[in-house]
Amino acid sequence: MSKPESVAVFCASSQPRQASWADRARSFGARLAQEGINLIYGGGARGLMGQVAQGCHEAGGRVTGVLPTIFDRPDVRLKVVHSELEIVPGMHERKARMYELADSFVVLPGGIGTFEEFFEVYTWLQIGLHRKNIVLWNMDGFYTPLLSFLDSVVEAGLMGHEVRDSLLVADDEDDVIRLLGQEVAKLPDKLSGRK
């Protein structure tokens, strides 16, 4: 697979206690711009989400925000960084539109909103609704407990090892970019159990 044209980034809209994560999020946004990859993100100004968008914008990249009407407020949205800002009716429409616009997904540290976005696109990969790479950026081991849990789900026979292996895990920015260009895993047909 070649480098994607656009990447949806899921991450915290809160400011993390780990200050270096904000710096890395901003750097990653700039890296996307340098690589010629369009950023698709949730449209907000806060937390890691805002840092990724600012970094991409400042480096001359294309930034598309997808913002639900509930968050269409001056204290939430970034007005100056968007190449395009789409206002959608709600959270479901936001995810659907981000999915539609993106060729791949990158997950930075986040809370329950990030987890929900991640698990939905991961489920969609498992059931064959898309063949897009999902890269989990395991900053400072943030997602290590989750990865261990997913391993236990495989051991319990509740998820196939191919599905677990299809989740790409990066330790740093260079890993993320490299994995985005990796061939997308072909998974067994969920309904028939066949490849």
From TrEMBL:
<comment type="similarity">
    <text>Belongs to the LOG family.</text>
</comment>
<dbReference type="GO" id="GO:0005829">
    <property type="term" value="C:cytosol"/>
</dbReference>
<keyword id="KW-0203">Cytokinin biosynthesis</keyword>
<protein>
    <recommendedName>
        <fullName>Cytokinin riboside 5'-monophosphate phosphoribohydrolase</fullName>
        <ecNumber>3.2.2.n1</ecNumber>
    </recommendedName>
</protein>
<keyword id="KW-0378">Hydrolase</keyword>
<dbReference type="Pfam" id="PF03641">
    <property type="entry name" value="Lysine_decarbox"/>
</dbReference>
<dbReference type="GO" id="GO:0008714">
    <property type="term" value="F:AMP nucleosidase activity"/>
</dbReference>
<dbReference type="InterPro" id="IPR031100">
    <property type="entry name" value="LOG_fam"/>
</dbReference>
<dbReference type="GO" id="GO:0009691">
    <property type="term" value="P:cytokinin biosynthetic process"/>
</dbReference>
<dbReference type="InterPro" id="IPR005269">
    <property type="entry name" value="LOG"/>
</dbReference>
